[in-house]
Amino acid sequence: MPIVVDIDVMLARRKMSVGELADRVGITPANLAVLKNGRAKAVRFATLAALCDALGCQPGDLLRWESEGAAAD
Question: Does 73 score more than 80 pLDDT?
């Protein structure tokens, strides 16, 4: 999929666990893991906003687009 989720990068930079972030955002750790691992089909703007608030970042810090050909390089 050309959308890459970098939540794990932000978690590492903030020295925060998945459980702590899930608590701050108000979602289950399982749902956060689905999003973090790129298996989610959609994300609500409210959830994205809560993630950005909890991590002190912008949406572009969490999501980025890669062309299909770039992944093979």
Answer: no
